[in-house]
Amino acid sequence: MPKKRSGGGLTGTQQAAKFLGVSVLAGAVLAGIALPAAGALGLAAKGTVKGFDEIPANLKTPPLSQRTTILDAKGGQIATVYSRDRTVVSLKDISPYMQKAIVAIEDSRFYEHGAIDLKGVLRALNRNAQSGGVAQGASTLTQQYVKNVFVEEAGDDPDKVAQATQQTIGRKIQELKYAIQVEEELGKKKILENYLNITFFGQQAYGIEAASQRYFSKQAKDLQLEEAAMLAGIVQSPSRYDPVNDAEEATKRRNTVLQRMAEVHDISQSEADRAKAIPVKLKVSKPKNGCITAVSGAGFFCDYVREVFLSDPVFGKTKEARAKVWNQGGLTIRTTLDPRAQQSTQESIKDHVYQTDDVATAVTMVQPGTGKILAMGQSRPYGFDKHETQINYSVDQKMGGSNFGFPVGSTFKPFVAAAALEQGKPPTQSYPAPFKMPYPDSIPTCTDKPWRNQGFNLENENESEVGPYALKEAMAKSVNTYFVQMIGDIGLCPVVEMTDKLGVVQGNGAKLPVSPSPLTLGSTGISPLVMASAYATFANRGTYCTPTAIESIRTADNKSLEVPKSTCEKAMTERTADTINELLRGVIDSGTGQEAGLQSRDNAGKTGTTDERRNAWFVGYTPNLSGAVWVGSPSQQVKMENIRIGGTTYGKVFGGQVPGPIWRDAMTGALDGQEAPPFNRVPIPDAPKAPEKPGKPDDKPGDQRGQGNGGGGDGGNGGQNPFPGISLPPDLIGGGNNRGQGNGGSNGNGGGGNFP
Fold first, then answer.
1. From residue 308, how far is each of 17, 72, 92, 316 by CA, in Å?
2. Alpha carbon distance 120, 135 (integer Å)
3. What pLDDT does residue 542 have?
4. pLDDT recorded at residue 60
5. What's the alpha-carbon Rg for the chain, to the nearest Å?
6. Is residue 731 scored above 70 in pLDDT?
7. 3-class DSSP assignment, residue 242
8. Which of the given ranges, 317-331, 350-364, 458-472, has the highest pLDDT on average?
9. Which of 49, 193, 566, 727 is positioned for an S-S bond with 91, CB 3.0–4.6 A?
10. By three-state DSSP, how is residue 652 classified?
11. What percent of the chain lies above the pLDDT cut of 90?
């Protein structure tokens, strides 16, 4: 016995045969497309059913793309991002007025026919014959839904979208076959629910919930009659009937919907007339999409989360697979961002560096022992206008950062000290450390080919800085010649091995060059996130943890996704880490970082300033929080001398002078109310006191003085380059991942020089 359809009375194949037979014999139109006696699929009246049955009926309904919500560690919303702004809701959460309005205007016999409406087809044929063209189509809501599924599956691929919407008989007959399948599998209510969730309502709103929020700032379940009628009218032509841009045309269309609802007895004529008399009253909510909308200056962190998702294999084996999951959306991503730390970071940045200053600052905080990124901010906001940027100064190029990072100066010296201590050097190690000296003639590397000097010198910042110095005083005063003598003593390989364990790489992801300048005095560009994570190892008593930004992810159907985990490995002994902590406490207590010190809790850190003061750093930590602060010109073109920053004029900028106070204020707020655990103390004997020398201790513009082109300076050696063969392009900083602005160089004179 033939299978009966509610409202249709015939099986799917019988409906198709009858429809195709009527269409073929009449030289008909299916949804405005001429159907010849022998169509593109060779379906003549004879053999119609057989040909139709051969079309595959395996419609795969893709999950609807929805907005993704990014949350901080406390559950507060940072931003929403989406490929398509959509929130899927059930039919019970959609106003009955909306359900009736869309059916009345798009397919008033929806509940009476099957997948196709034969009466509608004949009506369309008659109307089109009278007009001599295509005046009316005959697609049912079910057929429209199937077409929207094709469009949704095409995503943002223009070729696939064109294929999904092509007006060919083959496509239309395929839609018909799928529509019959959908009717049999879903039923009318589910089809209506799916249709209202998938269809486009203009103004970047997909689905009725997003449309209701966009135009009226309310949920779909709360739509009134006149509001529902207006939204139902938009569907036919979202651009033509857009109430935001053409209220008059939208009102006419709304009234047409209201009248149609009265004609099919969904509402009375008096209800329709009353609703028509109400002016269109919009309460538009602008689209809020993307990291540019993030709160508390967290746009760059938001973008970092996106980059993690798109690059980590845990979310898909290929880049295309990961992008598909991201664009599909519907995710709730809880991140590691601590709202208190982020707010404190942004407040400190605004207090010390203005958005319009010639230089910028970037601040990143990491939790020792977990690798969790707790704060990430910078003085130039996320955006496209003047004094805004999409480049994240805190991270590496592959994650949306600058092309090469920024030279770190003397903040690199603790890595050298840690390597020396691991090699058995005592914390009381002393070197002559004269004011000026030649680089060692030869320094061992990790291969059988040593690094060799070509007769060039380096010097300290002040002529008063003349050794001998022990490690404690040399670290506090940041004595360049001391640490070059130390690396000459232990060789380059221990430093290479140490920085590898600490995850220290250049901003472009490459390993550090194996030569004294980058491996002693910080001439190489490195990102603040890398520096904060490396210093967190000292706070964590020698165990390095990879940085992580995502705590958990749940899908739209409340399933949990696997997320990347921080991996922690021992980089040095606890004794070495404790000794470094003690040394860096001295930097804050009596050395170059005195302006950065925190009150009432143990803290340690190191200053850094590169040649010509193009970059200034402070990287420091407590036992439970590590933070890195960089200040400089993203293009590396600004020498920070006689410069106004944050409303204050500075003759010369030092790492302890501008970055230090930024770090101090940001950390103070981030740690407010938290425990203040102590470092594990290691006594380091003071060296015998020498006669007091004139001059004020300061951190060095600490790539190599007198060395030509290191870390942004031309030094005092006539621009000579003692370490040829390592060059940087003129677009050293900016433009990572094609995010805009790329200019300037960070070597000797703003471009064209060589790093040793």
1. 53, 16, 37, 12
2. 13
3. 98
4. 64
5. 34
6. no
7. coil
8. 350-364
9. 193
10. strand
11. 65
Find, among 421, 518, 423, the residue nearest to 471 by Cα: 421
User: Of 690, 714, 687, nearest to 701 (Cα)?
Assistant: 714
C-alpha to C-alpha distance for 486 and 147, rounded to whole angstroms: 71
Instruction: Supply the angle between the helices 319-328 and 299-311 in degrees, to the nearest 10.
Output: 130
Of the listed ranges 48-57, 159-168, 299-308, 434-443, the one predicted with least confidence:
48-57
Tokens of 367: 């939790």
Backbone phi, then psi, for 616, in 5-degree steps?
-135, 140
Pick from 101, 98, 80: nearest CA to 90: 98
Pairing label, strands 332-335, 68-71: parallel
Higher pLDDT among residues 721 and 603, named by residue: 603
Cα–Cα nearest to 311, from 298, 300, 299, 325: 325
Which residue pairs from 498-502 have beta carbons closer than 8 angstroms and sit at least 24 positions apart in sequence? 498/415, 498/418, 498/419, 498/422, 498/571, 498/572, 499/415, 499/534, 501/544, 501/569, 501/571, 501/572, 502/415, 502/533, 502/534, 502/537, 502/544, 502/571
Paired strand residues for 160: none
What letter represents residue 413's amino acid? Answer: K
Higher pLDDT, 24 or 528: 528
Buried-state track 53-82, b at ≥16 Cβ within 10 A, e below 16: eeeeeebebeebbbbbbbbbbeeeebbbbb
> Would you say 195 and 94 are in contact if contact means Cβ atoms under 8 Å apart?
no
Look up residue 582 and give its two tokens: 């003690």
The stretch 132-142 carries a mean pLDDT of 60
Which of 66-75, 423-432, 585-594 has the weakest average pLDDT? 585-594
> Where are the strands (E) in 314-429, listed by range?
332-335, 360-366, 373-378, 406-407
Question: CA 142: distance to chain centroid?
Answer: 38
Tokens for 494, please give them. Answer: 């221990």
- Listed range (9-18, 606-615, 724-733) with the worst mean pLDDT: 724-733
**539, 624 contact by CB (below 8 A):** yes
- By the 8 A CB rule, do 299 and 381 touch? yes
Question: What is the C-alpha to C-alpha distance for residues 117 and 113, in angstroms, rounded to an integer?
Answer: 6
- Residue 330 corresponds to which amino acid? G
Check: CB of residue 536 under 8 Å from CB of residue 569. Answer: no
What pLDDT does 30 receive?
Answer: 41
Q: What is the mean pLDDT of residues 66-72?
A: 95
In this structure, what DSSP letter does residue 91 have?
G
Rounded CA separation 562/472 (Å): 45
Contact 549, 336 (CB under 8 A): yes
SS3 701: strand
